[in-house]
Design a protein that fits this description.
Helix content: 40-55%
Shape: globular
Number of strands: 6
Strand order of the largest sheet: 1-2
Structural class: mainly alpha
Largest sheet: 2 strands, antiparallel
Number of domains: 1
Length: 366
């Protein structure tokens, strides 16, 4: 069922935004992993067709909005490594270096963390580490610059120290170092709720960064594994009887709360990928697989136009012109949509891990 669904989704896909964006990057990463798991050219062709139109021979990316200073812009760059490996076209090597250079001009908080966006000064959002760390870890493995790994380590250490709630072990969506935003606690600077997709981005960042670190970065890899184990142990306590988690993690009894699709897929992926990488115990793979199968059963819905992946929170943020206050009511007020790339891309990623495991079991049985 998922194979046919992916084929139709990719055939009908239109870029999420007109500029270089992280949502398209989720689909590109999903295709990269599905190609590695299946060898089916459909997935590689999608990535190469997407990049060929956007990356110039000199390695520049005209649709990359440099003036936005947006961490989200790094996520699609992960596909450049894939294109370079497949085609050996020098434009992709140039593009990797060009995109990596953008971090040097990125504004930083007082403590040295990159702002989430230029329009969100002094703010650290938990999803920013997913957008940046896996790209820079892969770049570090390519160029051999250990300083990059040191900075990646500082990013994760900061998030564990400042965004992790000591009581629950869950992670807040964001922190405002200036303590001026309406959504920020005036004493701590933290937002007030535990948003599932925010936690999901963080778990995936830990796995995907560890997977591509240079071999000599064993200490950093172990550090990421320790953070991952702690975060997973805390998060899984909030599962509902069906094994899934809610949009606002720690309020599962609220009638209006719901089992948001993308966040559950991110958790399922991180559990399976973490076990595959030996960052998590083996039984976490089975837990993640059960979550994946439940999502597929409950959230792949048949409609008059075909199968769709439903139950995806369209977007959630803090502040801005919309006045997003970070309350439980706010997260539950955001529109719920179908076939959003933040859900479908991660479904591809999780399916790829499942297929790899299935293949490994078949080989072991001879």
């Amino acid at each position: 069922m998922t194979k046919q669904y992916f084929q139709r989704f990719l055939a009908q896909y239109r870029p999420f935004k007109s500029y270089w964006n992280y949502e398209d990057g989720c689909v590109l990463t999903g295709c990269r992993q599905m190609y590695a798991a299946t060898g089916e050219t459909l997935y590689a062709d999608f990535v190469l067709d997407y990049l060929t139109m956007r990356v110039k021979p000199d390695g520049t990316i005209p649709s990359y909005l440099t003036g936005k200073h947006c961490l989200d812009s790094f996520n699609s760059g992960r596909s450049l490594f894939f294109a370079k490996e497949l085609t050996h076209d020098p434009r992709y090597e140039k593009a990797i270096r060009w995109q990596a250079s953008q971090i040097t001009a990125h504004p930083r908080t007082e403590s040295g963390m990159p702002w989430h966006k230029g329009i969100y000064p002094q703010q650290v959002w938990i999803d920013g580490v997913y957008m940046t760390a896996p790209f820079f870890a892969e770049y570090a493995a390519q160029c051999g610059d250990v300083r990059i790994c040191e900075e990646i380590g500082r990013w994760f250490t900061y998030l564990e120290k400042h965004l992790r709630d000591a009581k629950t072990g869950l992670y807040y969506h964001a922190l405002d170092e200036s303590r001026t935003q309406r959504w920020a606690n005036p004493d701590t600077g933290l937002s007030q709720s535990f948003w599932l997709r925010g936690e999901g981005w963080f778990l995936m960042a830990l796995c995907d960064t560890a997977a591509v670190l240079p071999p000599e970065q064993e200490q950093l890899r172990n550090h990421l594994g320790a953070i991952l184990r702690d975060a997973v142990s805390a998060l899984l306590l909030y599962r509902r009887p069906d094994g899934l988690l809610c949009q606002v993690i720690d309020r599962p009894s609220l009638a209006e709360n719901y089992t948001e699709t993308s966040g559950n897929l991110m958790t399922a992926y991180a559990l399976m990928r973490g076990a595959e990488l030996r960052m998590l115990p083996d039984d976490c793979f089975e837990t993640g697989l059960a979550m994946l199968e439940t999502v597929k059963r409950e959230k792949l819905c048949e409609t008059a136009s075909g199968t769709v992946l439903c139950g995806i929170c369209r977007s959630a943020g803090l502040g801005g012109a919309e006045g997003r206050d970070g309350s439980t009511a706010y997260y539950l007020s955001e529109p719920v949509v179908s076939d959003d790339p933040k859900g479908v891309g991660v479904l591809m990623m999780a399916e790829a891990v499942r297929l790899r495991s299935q293949c490994a079991i078949s080989k072991a049985r001879g």
